[in-house]
Input
Amino acid sequence: MGPDVLNGIDNPARSQQMSQFFLVFRTDLFGPAEDLRARVSDFASTIAASPRRPGVDEILLPGQRGARVARARRRDGIPLSSATLVALSDLASDLGVHVPDSVSG
Output
């Protein structure tokens, strides 16, 4: 956990020292779906409104940061480094694929 979790991007063959756990609920056992949605929404609002430590701008729930990033990337595109753009442009050229000026810079 924490600092013991290794970066699997740089070396995907190496163990990342982590695992997953999945828990599934039958939400219908908690009552009507609309009631459960309202209770969860109220709970999320309570958490987000909790007092924050100095330097903490907001409290996010799991998935909120990722959802923001996904919306921004759908709207603005996926940011790529200059080196990646050059490599992709070179590969496209090698394969005879036209790269629009708006992509190649």
User: Anything to note?
Assistant: The chain has four helices and no strands.
